[in-house]
Structures are given as C-alpha cells and as structure tokens.
C-alpha cells in the first residue's frame, strides 16, 4: 500500500494537509462519479460467486472458481488506489495554491506596517521589512527592547485580527521576538562599518601630561572636521569610538586617542587624605569652626563634611584644663600641617595651644620637601588655618613649612591632602577633577586616562551578512564578498597608513587605479597636489579615520556573490547591532531568497507527490491489465466493462508519461475527477499557475538587478 500524503516531507504536517485539502476546489473523485456509482451498484447487487459459477459450463467452472477471488481483490484494490490518487492530487494542488499565494504577496506592494510595532487584537507584533509578523511574548520584553537594535520606540494601533487578515494585507506569521534581538534590513544585506555607536570608557586614573607619552603625541589629538576640539567626555568618547581607539584621554579640553599600549607617567602627586566632597556644582569652602571641627560647606551653606572629633566648648579643654584655670589659652581652634606631615586640629592658637582633638595620621608619609608648596606661598602664608581665617575656596591651599604636604580645595570641591614627588612633579601641576558631567578630566600637566572597553567589537568590522525575512542573519564567507566599482566619500578625512603606493593624476584616474587592483579597498585623494593614495583592506572601516582638511577619503563598496533570487543591496550597521542579530549559519552562494526560498520546499513536496502518483498509476494499470487478461465470460458475468477499464488504463498510462515529463515535474499533472469516474486533465490550470510564478520570480529578479 502507499502512504497517504499527511506526513510527506519535513515541510508539511497533518494540519497543513487538511487545510490544503479544504482549500482545493470541489471535485468529483473516481468512486463518486454517477456513472461509476451506477455500475458499482449493479455489480454489487449481482455479484454472487455461486450464481456466476452456476452459469459456467465444463472446465470453465474451475477457472472461474480459481480467478473469482483474485479479480474481486483487484477490483477492490483499484478502488482503494483511486482514492489514494485523489488524495495525492488534492495535496499537489494545495501546494500549488500555497505557492501561488506566496508569489502574489511577493510581487504585491509593501504594506504600511513594515518596520513597525503593530498592535493587533490578539497581541503586539513587530512587522519586518518583508512583512513577517513577529509577536512580542510579553510587555516586559517589548518595553526593554524599545529603541534598541533597530526596534522602533513607538507602536501603532491597527485594529487588525492576526487570525483573519483582510485580503491584500500582505502579512504572514513569523517567529517570536527575543530580548535583545536586532531587526531591520530584512530581505537585504548588511555590513559592519564601525564599532559600537555607544562605547563605554573605563577610567584608568590621572597621570602626568608629557609629550613623551605616546597617547599625547600631536598626531593622536582628535578633532572635529572644522578643527574644533572634542572638549567633553561624551564627545571625546564618541570620537575615540568612531576612530576605533583603545585608549583616550582628556586634558584641559583636549582629546587624544590611540591604539598603542603604553606606560603612563606618574602624576607626581599622591593623595594622603581627602574629604570626598567632589561635586558637579562648584563653590565648596573648607574652614575651621568655633566648636573644633574642620568642615566643608557648599556655596549655599549646606554641610558636606565634618571631622568626626567630639564638639568642644571653652569650659573644657581636656586634661583638666579650663579657661578659668589657665587664662593663657584662648577659646579657639586651628588646623596645622605639622613637621612630621600629620594634619591635626589643635586647641588654642598657633602660638599658644594645648593638645590635638583630631589628626589624619599621615605622619611620615611625605615624599619629601617641595619648594613649590612651602607654607609661605600658600593662602595664609603659614602652615595653619584658624577659626578667624576665611577658609579655603577653589584652588586655594596651605602647605607645610618645607612643602612636604599640601592641603588644597580642588575645583571639583574635594578637599585633598597631597604629597609630591619632587622628581616628577612640575610647578603648577594639578590633579584631575570631575567636570560638570561627573567624569574626570585632566588639568595643568595632568590627564584623565580611559580605556574603550568596547574595542572587542572591532573584530566584526567588515563582516557581511544577509538578513532573512524573519530577521535571521546569515553570514557570508570571505570568498563570497568582493569589492565593487562604487565608493562612499568621506570629505576632509584620511585613513593613515595602509598605503598601496602613491601616484599623481585626476580623481577619475585615482579611482581607476583602485578598481584595477583587487587588493584596493579605497583611496585617499589630495586635490591640491593631485596625489592618489590607494589603500589596502586595513584602511577604514577596519582601521581608523582622521580629520584632514586637505584630503578626501573614498571607501570601496562591498559586493556579494549570492543567488539571482537574492537582493544585492548592502546597508551599513554598527558592530553592536550586527552582534544582536540571531545567527542563522553561513550564507551560501546558491541559497535561495524570498519567493524562491518559499517555493523551493513546495517544489520538493510536489516532487514527492508526483512520485507517489506515478507509483499509484502504475499499480492501477497493472491491476487493470490483470483483469483484462481474465476469461471474457467471467468478466462479463461480474458486470465489468472491459472497454471502460481499457480506457481507464490508457488514461493512467498517459498520467505516468506526463508525470515523468520534465514540464510535468514543474507542475503539469492530470487530475482524475470527471463524472465518468475517470479524470479531467488540468494542464491549462497548472500551466497558467507556473507561468504566473515564473513571471513573479522574473519581476522580482529584475527589481534586484535594477538596484
């Protein structure tokens, strides 16, 4: 027996088979034809072995008895085979109907919902550029995905029912959306031309500014095309990311970027203690209070820091001393930077004091005397700060007698006790401070060093992939990616190094030189000197690009070797977006795209159905031939019409011939459905369907070629 088509092939299950059967136009099968039904009823009413045998004479009785059961079995087998033939025919037509619908959608205009989050009656869907409906599993995933990796940050109401879409909507069900999945560019190609759009800088510390430091070389200074500085953390970060730099630094509103590893020079400053009161709002002041504390206040008078020693009053100095018992002590307090490099709050005055109420315990930690910080050069001219003094504001300081330590109120509002290494310290050197955006920036003779922690994404630069209709990325192998003869221009830019020589000539001649060299990935042209610099594949976007007013950079566009059914367009994306596409394996040069990829499995299903139809037809013909070879008298007594069976055999033989014909393998088959219980050929219908499908494919292909 032959398998029914419900589980034929990997692409169609029982439910699809039922749908295809229901979608098939109403037909009259072999065993339901009125003429066949009448003959069958007559046969069954008179079919009695004993009666037939009684009418035979002589030796014919033995032949009748021997063949009666076999003929009966063959007749019943033919009935069963015809039912199977009918089922496979319906299945075949169902596949063709499905393919026809796909072709219609492929050549129909794009719908208004492509590339949007669309609210329908049952769920919210993201609609791909190819019309696939990808549902959001829950609101949390949708909310977390808004505005990321190509997902729109809005949604639109449609009023549509996903299970009952109006005709012409041109939408089809896709897979579920996943958290962090990239979307967009479906049905076309993408390549990575830059690192992550939003790199993250990891602060490494504050170091001494020196021209001997590799990072701070003049050629590593990052500037806008107009020559202006990237003077904030965010702008410097973006410039370093755009230039694919591993390191970047900020110093006095200058931005530097480099990929070379180096050993940063020590700043020469060491923090011994600080109040930890840095703020984006300037104006902090440090002073000594009448109750014996060192405090830091904001410009509005808010208390930001207070030393942890107990409050004091003038009736108790400690150690049994009081104002009354020792009138030489004044009711006052002062801060002092001692000769042992400890900073303390003491009771009394610098000339008449008793005991300390609080100290930093930094004695012995100085790196040595520093003539630039000696007490006489500080705000008060001495090593102390008293309750009667106004306090320390931004950039004001006091030093120890020999300059071994310095207490300074920094611009960022942090009160810091420093020591300096005289061998590396430079006059006027300042440590890094927090800028208004809360990030560290260098000041005089210092710079804030950051590492671009996203540089690993540079490994994806130059990758090319195809995005399927369901937002799956298939990566092209290196041998399928080439360079075309069109270029993208970057005015006022250069990509240093990676030269393939140099020559003089016009812009057109420079481009011709690059086109003729398979290793040329682009060129830099200097119009003033008519100089051409062809570049290898290490140029931008693999390498960096630098602003240079006298040159323009031209990057050669990629090309892809893919099937004629696939789009040739290539769009640029950043490495982060590329990394978030769901990976679907390698994009082969013979892989079908769009309509061709949809129809390919249907063709496989129809091929399998065709093989089943051929086998069934062959078996029916063999059974009929067996019956035709029997005794005419027996056949006549059984009510079998030899002429009808002969015609039936002829038509099934014709079916086998057509099914083995190359054109038949593409869709032209016979459907046995007429009222006589035999068949009516559907060649015209099948031929029209495949002609329509062919036109659709050609239409789409021409569209790709025009692009």
The beta-strand count equals 34
**Count of all domains:** 4
Structural class: alpha+beta
Shape: elongated
What is the strand arrangement across the widest sheet?
Answer: 4-1-2-3-5
Radius of gyration: 44 Å
What percentage of the residues does DSSP assign to strands (E)? Answer: 15-25%
The span between the termini is 52 Å
Roughly what percent helix?
25-40%
Figure out the total of helices.
13
Mean pLDDT over the residues: 78
- Unreliable sequence segments: 1-58, 662-702
Tell me about the biggest sheet?
A: 5 strands, mixed
Keywords:
5-stranded mixed sheet; 13 helices; 34 strands; alpha+beta
Note the topology.
Blueprint: H1 14-23, H2 34-46, H3 49-54, H4 60-107, E1 117-119, E2 124-127, E3 132-135, H5 139-145, E4 155-157, E5 172-173, E6 188-194, E7 201-208, H6 233-242, E8 247-251, E9 254-258, E10 269-274, E11 285-288, E12 294-297, E13 303-306, E14 333-337, E15 343-349, E16 352-359, E17 384-386, E18 397-399, E19 406-409, E20 415-420, E21 433-434, E22 440-441, E23 446-452, E24 464-467, E25 472-475, E26 481-494, E27 503-504, H7 507-515, E28 522-526, E29 531-535, E30 546-560, E31 570-574, H8 575-579, E32 582-586, H9 594-628, H10 632-637, H11 642-660, H12 662-665, E33 670-671, E34 680-681, H13 683-706
Parallel strand pairs: 1-4, 3-5, 6-31, 25-32
Antiparallel strand pairs: 1-2, 2-3, 6-24, 7-23, 8-9, 8-23, 10-20, 11-12, 12-13, 14-15, 14-17, 15-16, 18-19, 19-20, 21-22, 24-25, 26-30, 27-29, 28-29, 28-30, 33-34
Helix pairs in contact: 1-4, 4-9, 4-13, 9-11
